[in-house]
Design goal:
This protein is mostly helical. The chain has one domain. The chain has 13 helices and no strands. The radius of gyration is 19 Å and the shape is globular. It starts with a helix and ends with a helix. This is DUF7973 domain-containing protein. Pfam families: DUF7973. The chain crosses the membrane at residues 6-29, 36-54, 60-84, 105-127, 133-155, 187-208, 228-248, 269-289, 309-325. InterPro entries: DUF7973.
Length: 326
Amino acid sequence: MTPDLAMQFVESITIFGLIASIGGGFFGAAIGANNAFGFTGIAIFVAFAIAYATGSDVGFTYLAFGPAFGPHVAFAGGVAASAYAAGKKQLMADTGGGRDINQPLAGLGHPDVLLVGAVFGVGGYLLQKGIAMIPWFGTHTDSVALTVFISGIIARICFSKTKPFAWVSKPEGTKRWLDWQEKPSQYLTLGAFSGLFGAGIALTLAHFAHHTADKGIADVIMANSQALPFALSAICIFIICFGIKVPVTHHMTIMAALAAVKFLPVVGYNFYVALVIGVVFGMIAALVAEFIAHLCYDGGDTHIDPPAGAIWPTTTIILGLSSVLG
């Protein structure tokens, strides 16, 4: 890191944000990683309300994707705490062990588990800031998703004896990520139609904001339009915590939405073509997530997040291609 980049990194970190991320990671562990992620979805709705009312993006930068409910803080803290608890035999294998990210860990009655969440929360905050500072790549990837992915790898290295990368061609039983969407016919269908759903929402929101809102408000809404379908998918994760097999689609909806919005000017503002592009990238995200599941999830005993592993490289492809073609 050059001296200039090092200075930018330091300037991007606030003491307030640093301290707040400790609480974010702790809270994510206390309520469970998946519950924390569901609250990310709710926070996004709050962020849009704040943006429409004031033109401020604080709801996105602090609440939804910052030190409060940012997945790199709260969700990642919960994931690491589950891995730690399993290593201490406080989460048993018959309930999922370190891959059980549904259970609120405060119920274990061990404060050290929650403190691990706090440590990984502040670590995620710092790591995301560092990734965002990388020349070109930092602005052409999803630094939050990449941080979630890396944090899961670090947690496995720290608290598990299984390798972070171990290809499993045919996962069986409880080793599987999501048995109801692991076949190509399942995840590609979900990717296509979730992509259509997400792209349509983002295009409609961006178009509405551009033509009806003040420029300051419109800029914030358009910059974050892909987050609305992501929020809807994230809220569905609450249902998984009850053991109900709902589709996991947030990686599909956000990638489709981002692709549709970014390629819209490239295709001459043809909304129909942009929708098709969204469908394609929804399917790509679904495929990449299942690949990551076989590579990082199915062969381990802690959670390394397949959707996060799909979001960051797909974002880089979308932003890279759209900037070159645009």
